[in-house]
Structures are given as structure tokens and as C-alpha cells.
Write a structure and sequence with these properties.
The complex is a heterodimer of chains A (about 350) and B (about 270). Chain A has helices spanning about 45-55, 95-105, 110-125, 140-150, 170-185, 195-205, 220-225, 230-235, 245-250, and strands at about 5-15, 20-30, 35-40, 60-65, 70, 80-85, 155-160, 190-195, 205-210, 215-220, 240-245, 255-260, 265-270, 280-290, 295-300, 305-310, 325-335, 335-340. With about 350 residues, chain A is α+β, with helices and mostly antiparallel strands. Chain A has two domains: about 5-235, 3-Layer(aba) Sandwich (Rossmann fold); about 240-340, Beta Barrel (OB fold (Dihydrolipoamide Acetyltransferase, E2P)). In chain A, the strands form four sheets. Chain A has a six-stranded mixed beta sheet, sandwiched between helices. The radius of gyration of chain A is 24 Å and the shape is elongated. The model of chain A has no long low-confidence stretch (mean pLDDT about 90). Chain B is globular and about 70 Å long. Chain B contains eleven helices and no strands. Mean pLDDT of chain B is about 85; it is low at about 260-268. Chain B has one domain (about 60-265): MetI-like (MetI-like fold, Orthogonal Bundle), CATH 1.10.3720. Chain B has helices spanning about 5-30, 50-55, 60-90, 100-110, 115-125, 135-160, 160-170, 175-200, 205-210, 220-225, 235-265. Chain B has about 270 residues and is mainly alpha-helical. At the A-B interface, strand 6, helix 2 and helix 4 of A face helix 7 and helix 8 of B.
Chain lengths: ~350, ~270
């Protein structure tokens, strides 16, 4: 039977001087899954990726690829390929030479590597660009060449270091969909580093939220979004909406820090009442932000702090600016409130 | 930028004066090499190639040129190997004493040649059995290495190490990475550095004076020895003129290479 674990990290630690960049991380990545490492810059997510690729040596801990310990193995002897943030295409080689590079150094026969490179370029829709130099390509095209150059080697694991970071929004969204499709077609394990929560939520089978070198939470996009395990996750994934212990005690009747997603909170104008089974409280509208599809309300709470509520602009008048400064009621189904730990 | 008419005229005059100071004497040398007179009187009494003929026939000149070319080639070859290795070590690895070593490599070019010359001379004559052609090569290598090192290091810093990582990631060992990625991207910088290093070695006179073994005459030394002999002066003039013409080529090549690499050498 095939070992279902593609990558296994145990107690992985990396220090740079006095700074602990990666602090004793345990993680199993399953075969064929799309796993995102999500965290702010400096959280250690790229260092984890570079250790899996072999560019950084861990100070402690082990890395296994498909059951084999590779902790001390050189990068060129590991069956993983990387798509770099700056693409790292070889500027003196054509697109075709770049894509064939991995096959060339592994002494694959010329006819076969030409054929495989053509197929890889066709799969990223760059079949006609073989003879161009990287300098003659746009950012999105370079990104796809980098992807083809990695995929042509048919690695067991593909590592992607913020590969969409340098692209503009439209192209990024298009590439998100394409990457996900390619991953489904080839069935390779993808480990995707990003600081963009939308990207992680859209593409991943599972998300690993990393902060200050530690794992805050591992879960499916739904779990991470709807059930944030820590205050950090609640704040980093989606919009921070925390109820401090004082307010929580009053409204929910239980101590601790609680979180409710903004779109779960209903805004009641005067006269409306909350449905049964909802927790509710009153507050003063500080800000009304119109964002096209929806309107965001920032509501100050009487005991201090504030909550954000999002209302879809699906019907009626959407100009709600007049509510600024007014008192409104807020309510949410108690199924959508979650207690968060300050730290696991 | 807009400049007033007066400023423009003043700047033009300055430019003409500066260019005049540099290029009029050079032109005089070139024209004088075709002077038919025996004493380089000005204006030339007539045009002739007789001095060129005599310079070519002059054994001292021929030997000096051969000595200088061989010296320049060997000093450049040594510098290519050592300067390239040093630049790779200092740009791709982190180790104790890195900054100090970088400074030590660059220092010889900043030190006055006479200091380097005296120091090398002392060591060679006191401890290493006197001066030879080999000691001259070592003397020249002290400054040619710096030139190659600086050129190579600048290129390596600009290309960064992510291409090396990418190559390793795709399965290439360190030597394959150097052969297929690092070296091809350094090549134009190394050629430009070599042209410059050879040029420096070719016209060096101070370190040469202190490190050349007895009887070894490089071209600059030959010129210096013959400059004040009235009978040889026209031949010196021809040698100088030839050097002006020959120098134009490598400088043109070096400039072309460094401007080409501006377009093609960076990370894509």
C-alpha cells in the first residue's frame, strides 16, 4: 500500500541568530492534497518550505518525504520541485531550455525531453513561446513557465512559494483557478505558501495557519474560517471580530474570548427584533462602508470594543450612510459563535 | 533641464579644453610617428613610415612586447581562476572573517604600487631567493585578481543565489549548476574583467620595477629606458602610437560587453 503521507515534519526548528523562525513544527501532508501554509510575512512559512526543498538545514527535527528521511539530503537529491516567488527562470536560456533543464541534468534522452517539455508548455498554454527568452515574457507568462519547468519533472511534491504574489489582481484570480485545475489533473501534492487568506481559502484542501514560527491551526478552509482555533486565526483569516471577555460574559453568559464572523451578524434597525435562538446586543454605528456587493457596519459596543457586521446589498435601498451615529441591534445565531484560545 | 545660453557656452568651452588636453598630445604622438625628420621637429618636415619600419625591426621592442604579452596573459589567467573562486566563495557562502577577507582581496588595488612593490621586493630578495619572471607574475597577480574579483562579484550579487537554488531544485549537483547556470551568467563579466586586468598588467611599471628579475624588460620598462635617448625617441613614439591604436579595441569590447549584460544578465 502507498504511504498516504507525502511529507512528514517532526519537531522542525530553524533559528537565525537569536530569532526562532520555525519553532518545533509537526505536520503531515497527504498524497495529492493541496495544502496551504498561510501566515503573515516573517511567520516562518517560507522557511518551512525552504527546509522541505533542502535550501535550509533545520537546527532540529526531521523531514520525511514518502517515508524516507531526507533531513540531511541535498536539494538536488530530493524528489520535490519548487516554483519560486521570483520565478528564478534562467535568463540565458530560452523557455524550452528552461523547461527541459531538470530532464537535461537527469540525462533524459533529447527526444523525450523535447516532447515532455512541449507537453508541459502546452498544459500551461504557452506552446508557441518555446524560443522566447524569459525577458520577453510578461509576469503571468513567466509564472506559467516556472510552473511548467517544475511539473515536467513529475515530482511527488510541488512546492510553491507565493507564486502569485507578483501578479496583478485579475491575473492572480485567473491563475488561482488554473493552478487548482492543474493540481487536480496531475494529482501531485501541492504545498503552497501564501500570506493571502483569500488565496488560501479558495484553493486549498487544508490550510495550515502559521504565526511566529508555530502552527496556530490546521484545518479545511471551512474549519479555519468558521471555527478559528485562536484569536490570531480569527483575526488573520477573514475580518477580526472578537468579543472581549467582559462583553462575552454579558451577551453569551460564558467567560473567555469569542469570535463571530461579520456576515453571520444581523443588523437590526429600530423596531426589528432578533429571532429566537439568537444572541443579541445593542451598539452605536461608527462607520458604514459601502463595498459594492455588501455594506460593512462597524458598531461600537457599550462595554468597549467593536464588531463588524456585513449586510448583503441584495434588495432595497443600499444607501445606509444615514445610520452613522445611530443605535442598532446586533444578533447572531448562537451556532456561529466560537470561543478562541489566545494561544494553543 | 534648461540651461541658459551663457552656461551652455561656458560648459562647451570647458568640454573642449578637457578633451583638448587629453587628445591633442595623443594626436601629436600619432602624427609624429609618421614624421620624416630625424629629431621629431614640429611641424613634421614630411611623412614617412621609416620609424614604423625601424620599430618593427628593433629587437628590444619585439622582446619587450613578447615579455609583456606573456606576463599579461599569465597574470590574467591566474587572476581568472583565483578571482572567480574568491568571488564565488564570498558571495555564495557565509563564514567567519568574510568581510575581512573581502577587504584583504581589494586592498592591493588601493595601496600605492610603490608600497606593494617594495614589500614584494623585500620578501622575494630576502627569503625566496631573488627576483625572476615568476616573482614578476606574482607581483602583477596582486592587482589583476582584484579586477576579476570585483567584476565577478558585482555580477554574482546582481544575479543572486535564487538561480543556483532553482538549478539544485531541478536536480543539478553543484558542478552542473556552475557549468550550466552560474558560469554562463558570469561569462561576459569575466571577459570584461580579463580585458581590464590584461590592460593593467600591460602598462604597469612601478610594481614591475620592484619585482622583475634581472634582464627582464617589459614594454613599459623598455619605453622608460629609451625615452631619453635621442636616437631612440622616434621609435618610442611609434610604440606609443601603436599602443594607442591597439588599446581602442579592448576598451570598445569591454564597454560593449558590460552594456550587453545590463540587458541580459539579471534575474528574470
Amino acid at each position: 500500500m502507498v504511504n498516504p503521507v507525502a511529507i512528514s515534519l517532526r519537531g522542525l526548528t530553524r533559528r537565525f541568530g537569536d530569532v526562532v523562525a520555525v519553532n518545533s513544527i509537526d505536520l503531515d501532508v497527504l498524497h495529492g492534497e493541496f495544502l496551504s501554509l498561510l501566515g503573515p510575512s516573517g511567520s516562518g512559512k517560507t522557511t518551512v518550505l525552504r527546509m522541505i526543498a533542502g535550501f535550509e538545514r533545520p537546527d532540529a527535527g526531521t523531514i520525511e518525504l514518502a517515508g524516507t528521511d531526507v533531513t540531511m539530503t541535498a536539494p538536488y537529491a530530493r524528489d520535490v520541485n519548487t516554483v519560486f516567488q521570483d520565478y528564478a527562470l534562467f535568463p540565458h536560456m530560452t523557455v524550452a531550455e528552461n523547461v527541459q533543464y531538470g530532464l537535461r541534468v537527469k540525462k533524459v534522452a533529447k527526444a523525450e525531453r523535447v516532447e515532455r517539455a512541449q507537453a508541459a508548455l502546452a498544459s500551461v498554454r504557452l506552446a508557441d513561446y518555446e524560443d522566447r527568452k524569459p525577458a520577453q515574457l510578461s509576469g503571468g507568462q513567466r509564472q506559467r513557465v516556472a510552473l511548467a519547468r517544475a511539473l515536467v519533472n513529475r515530482p511527488k511534491v510541488l512546492l510553491l512559494d507565493e507564486p502569485l504574489g507578483a501578479l496583478d489582481l485579475k491575473l492572480r484570480e485567473q491563475m488561482q483557478v488554473e493552478l487548482k485545475e492543474i493540481q487536480r489533473e496531475v494529482g501531485i501534492t501541492f504545498v503552497f505558501v501564501t500570506h493571502d487568506q483569500d488565496e488560501a481559502l479558495t484553493m486549498s484542501d487544508r490550510i495550515v495557519v502559521i504565526n511566529e514560527g508555530r502552527i496556530e491551526q490546521i484545518g479545511t478552509p471551512t474549519e479555519v474560517y468558521e471555527h478559528p482555533a485562536t484569536a490570531f486565526v480569527a483575526g488573520f483569516v477573514g475580518i477580526s471580530n472578537l468579543l472581549d471577555p467582559v462583553t462575552a460574559e454579558q451577551v453569551i453568559g460564558r467567560p473567555g474570548t469569542w469570535s463571530v464572523r461579520p456576515e453571520k451578524i444581523h443588523v437590526h434597525l429600530s423596531g426589528e427584533s432578533a429571532p429566537a435562538g439568537h444572541h443579541c446586543l445593542n451598539g452605536t454605528v461608527r462607520e458604514v462602508i459601502y463595498v459594492g456587493m455588501s455594506t460593512r457596519f462597524v458598531v461600537d459596543l457599550p462595554a468597549g470594543g467593536s464588531l463588524m457586521a456585513v449586510r448583503q446589498n441584495s434588495e432595497g435601498s443600499t444607501d445606509l450612510g444615514h445610520l452613522r451615529g445611530q443605535s442598532v441591534g446586533l444578533s447572531w445565531d448562537e451556532r456561529y459563535e466560537y470561543q478562541v484560545a489566545d494561544r494553543i | 533641464m534648461s540651461t541658459s545660453r551663457g552656461t551652455k557656452i561656458a560648459l562647451s568651452i570647458f568640454a573642449i579644453i578637457v578633451f583638448g588636453f587629453v587628445y591633442i598630445p595623443l594626436s601629436v604622438v600619432l602624427i609624429n610617428s609618421f614624421n620624416a625628420g630625424e629629431t621629431l621637429s614640429w611641424p613634421p618636415s614630411g611623412l614617412s613610415i621609416k620609424w614604423w619600419q625601424r620599430a618593427i625591426d628593433n629587437e628590444g621592442v619585439r622582446e619587450a612586447i613578447v615579455t609583456s604579452v606573456i606576463l599579461g596573459l599569465i597574470a590574467t589567467a591566474i587572476a581568472l581562476v583565483l578571482g572567480t573562486l574568491a568571488s564565488l566563495a564570498l558571495s555564495r557562502f557565509r563564514f567567519f572573517g568574510q568581510d575581512a577577507i573581502s577587504l584583504l582581496i581589494i586592498l592591493p588595488i588601493a595601496l600605492p604600487g610603490i608600497v606593494t612593490g617594495i614589500a614584494l621586493n623585500n620578501v622575494f630578495t630576502s627569503y625566496l631567493g631573488g627576483l625572476t619572471f615568476l616573482t614578476l607574475i606574482i607581483g602583477h597577480a596582486t592587482f589583476t585578481i582584484v579586477v576579476i574579483y570585483n567584476n565577478a562579484l558585482a555580477r554574482l550579487r546582481r544575479t543572486g543565489s535564487s538561480l543556483d537554488d532553482a538549478s539544485a531544485d531541478l536536480g543539478a549537483g553543484p558542478w552542473t549548476t556552475f557549468r550550466l547556470v552560474t558560469f554562463p551568467l558570469m561569462r561576459s563579466a569575466l571577459i570584461a574583467g580579463s580585458v581590464l586586468a590584461f590592460g593593467l598588467s600591460f602598462d604597469e611599471i612601478i610594481v614591475t620595477t620592484f619585482t622583475a628579475g634581472p634582464g627582464i624588460t617589459t614594454l613599459p620598462i623598455w619605453i622608460y629606458q629609451n625615452l631619453f635617448r635621442p636616437t631612440q625617441a622616434p621609435i618610442v613614439n611609434v610604440v606609443a602610437a601603436a599602443l594607442v591604436l591597439i588599446s581602442i579595441l579592448p576598451i570598445y569590447v569591454a564597454q560593449k560587453l558590460s552594456s550587453d549584460s545590463e540587458r541580459g544578465g539579471g534575474i528574470m
